[in-house]
Design goal:
heterodimer, A: mainly alpha, two-stranded antiparallel ribbon, two-stranded antiparallel sheet, B: Cytochrome Bc1 Complex, Chain D, domain 2, 2 domains, 7 helices, 4 strands
Chain lengths: ~425, ~250
């Protein structure tokens, strides 16, 4: 650690700091925090995700003052916010699109960590905390999507909660317990609202622990080599405070362009129809940020059974649920699946290309998730590939990337030589 | 390397081309006064569109999220709004005798629906429920283009089309069998501004009005958006300049 900071000069600050070192804390963590000098713009998405969490909590609290969590009133209360509450449309569109942009920032943050090896020692716990935040965000987003009580809200809630019925023996009881009844109904809406309000504050707390871990192990950087000399790092303020602010500006330009000029671009039209338990929408789809998982869920269509006995060990539905949750839980094991000692993809010629393929695979999964599995991708008048098959290949590739390609790469890939230090690489580049 | 690149290019090409190949024909794109970042509602079209709703659609379709007084936002005078409201009766009460009573609607009332409940609406419409139109433009894929395509989609059925009794052929409706009879015919309304009331003209006008009903905030939203964008562009440019200045000490 750096030399102990000298006591503050201002007497009042000194008085407070000797009782609660809040000024020292700010100075230590937001001002002097030694940061690698070579972070690129992909490192902006962490602070962007942080500001989006703040935006979501602020708009969410204001919306909660006007929203009514009751099956007969929820849809109308949202429309009242849109029409009668002063700037209610602004709050709702900020919140609704904010969810999408929060996920976009977090996904870019996560992919950056995967490419530059930010999950490798000594940052495993930092990485785990990030995955926990992602899981909490997914739960929060799902329950938030149910609140407007439109057709897609209702049916998404029905489909997703029903997944748990795949759990052997106790599945159906768990689903009834979750619903608070025998179908998605008022008790379900009420508890989802309560949890949707609660979880963001849990996320907020885990973000602090995430930052605690970050400031203990310090930031990774595009070279993936740890800072050695003083020239390798620069103080967080003013260098990264100003760079983060510029990043906020760029990000908000895109986010607010959507909010003001195409607020329903990412929304399903069906959710502007009030929930109706008697009419199932032709095509139930989740929000874009859940589409890849949805494709993985639906890709598993075979029962896993003991050969020649017909005894089903894992029915297809349970298999799909396991694969879907597994697609995220697998990230917890990434530090050991990708065990190459070289952190940054920059020095890994084959990993670099497989990483691009992995990202393409995720996009393909998302696109399959948006389509009906029984429909065909037509390549010609009579020639087509069922979406289901594309989804199955892409799912296999997804898990193959983690279970086969990454471990093999760690063993056989010949990395390019690493620079001596961050500052040496910087001066070498000129 | 090049093989991987071409594989990626192929995958991306398939992604881009797929929706065009797989989806049914999208509704024909119309030229709307309210589209684009500078779009506003054409006031004359809104007035004509309200007339179409009032004279034609409102016989079966409610518009319950719009209040009579909201019409002042699109240029109706207070007296006009009072007169429009007073055409309809609403049930109020109970009064101090404990009785429910009927009174003429007031500007603060929601536009009075043609049927008091779903069962009555279905009874009058051959079992079908005419949907509320307040959000119809936002609640359909294709938005205003789709609603316009439905209103202008009542063409002669192709010989192989199987349309059940009491249903009608519509080129734009999924499955092509729609319960709504063709609502518009040339001259079914007479516009005060002498615009010829052709079916495409009335469809375009009423869709403009229904888009306003679904997105009454659109003009305020785009106006604020423009200001926010200009402010953000300037702020971000300045932040970039400051960033360059601060970081120049390092290089």
């Amino acid at each position: 650690m750096a030399a102990p900071t000298p006591p503050p000069e201002n007497a009042i600050v000194r008085w407070i700091d000797s009782r609660l070192p809040i000024f020292g804390f700010v100075k230590h963590h937001l001002q002097d925090y030694p940061t690698p000098r070579n972070l690129n713009y992909l490192w902006n998405f962490g602070s962007i995700a942080g500001i989006m969490l703040v935006v979501m909590i602020l708009t969410g609290v204001l919306l909660a003052m006007q929203y009514t969590a009751h099956v007969d009133l929820a849809f109308n209360s949202v429309e009242r916010i849109m029409r009668d509450v002063n700037y209610g449309w602004l709050l709702r569109y900020l919140h609704m699109n904010g969810g999408s942009f929060f996920f976009a920032a977090v996904y870019l943050h996560l992919l950056r960590g995967m490419y530059y090896g930010s999950f490798k020692a000594p940052r495993e716990i930092l990485w785990w905390l990030g995955i926990i935040i992602l899981l909490l965000m997914m739960a929060t987003a799902f329950m938030g999507y149910v609140l407007p009580w439109g057709q897609m809200s209702y049916w998404a809630a029905t489909v997703i909660t029903n997944l748990l019925s795949a759990i052997p023996v106790v599945g159906n009881d768990i689903v009834t317990w979750l619903w608070g009844g025998f179908s998605v109904d008022n008790p379900t809406l009420n508890r989802f609202y309560a949890l949707h309000y609660l979880l963001p504050f849990v996320i907020f707390a885990v973000v602090f622990v995430h930052l605690w871990a970050l400031h203990t192990v310090k930031s990774n950087n595009p070279l993936g080599i740890e800072p050695k000399k003083q020239q390798d790092t620069i103080p967080f303020h003013p260098y990264y405070t100003v760079k983060d602010l510029f990043g906020f500006g760029m990000f908000f330009l895109v986010y607010l362009a959507v909010v003001f000029f195409a607020p329903n671009l990412l929304a399903e039209p069906d959710n502007y129809i009030p929930a109706n338990s008697l009419v199932t929408p032709a095509h139930i789809v989740p929000e874009w940020y859940f589409l890849p998982y949805y494709a993985i869920l639906r890709a598993v269509t075979i029962n896993i059974s003991i050969p020649f006995t017909g005894i089903v060990l894992i029915p297809a539905k349970l298999g799909g649920v396991i694969a879907m949750f597994g697609s995220i839980l697998i990230l917890f094991f990434l530090p050991w699946l990708d065990s190459s000692p070289i952190k940054s993809g920059r020095f890994r010629p084959i990993f670099k290309q497989l990483f691009v393929l992995f990202v393409v695979d995720c996009i393909v999964l998302g696109w399959v998730g948006a389509n009906r599995p029984d429909e065909m991708l037509m390549m010609g008048p009579d020639m087509g590939i069922p979406y289901l098959m594309i989804g199955q290949v892409a799912t296999l590739y997804y898990f193959g990337h983690f279970f086969v390609l990454l471990p093999l790469l760690a063993r056989f890939e010949k990395p390019r030589p690493l620079p001596d230090s961050i500052s040496a690489a910087a001066s070498g580049q000129g | 390397m090049s093989r991987i690149r071409s594989a990626i290019a192929l995958a991306l090409a398939a992604l881009v081309a797929a929706p065009a190949l797989a989806e049914e024909a999208a509704p024909a794109k119309q030229d709307w006064s309210f589209s684009g970042i500078f779009g506003t509602y054409d006031r004359a079209a809104l007035h004509r569109g309200f007339q179409v709703y009032h004279d034609v659609c409102s016989a079966c379709h409610s518009l319950s999220r719009v209040r009579y007084r909201d019409l002042q936002e699109i240029g109706f005078s207070e007296d006009e709004v009072k007169a429009l409201a007073a055409e309809k009766k609403v049930t109020d009460g109970p009064n101090d005798q404990g009785q429910m009573f009927e009174r003429p609607a007031r500007p603060a009332d929601a536009i009075v629906p043609p049927f008091s409940n779903e069962q009555l609406a279905r009874l009058a419409n051959n079992g079908a429920l005419p949907p509320d139109l307040s959000l119809i433009v936002k609640a359909r894929k294709g938005g205003p283009d789709y609603v316009n395509a439905i209103l202008t989609g009542f063409v002669d059925a192709p010989p192989d089309a199987k349309i059940p009794d009491g249903m009608f052929y519509n080129a734009a409706f999924p499955g092509h069998a729609i319960a709504m009879p063709p609502p518009l015919a040339d001259g079914v309304v007479t516009y005060a501004d002498k615009t010829p009331a052709t079916v495409p003209q009335m469809a375009h006008d009423v869709v403009t009005f229904l888009n306003w009903a679904a997105e009454p905030e659109l003009e305020a939203r785009k106006k604020m958006g423009l200001r926010v964008m200009i402010y953000l562009v300037l702020l971000t440019a300045m932040l970039y300049a400051v960033k360059r200045k601060v970081w120049s000490k390092l290089h």
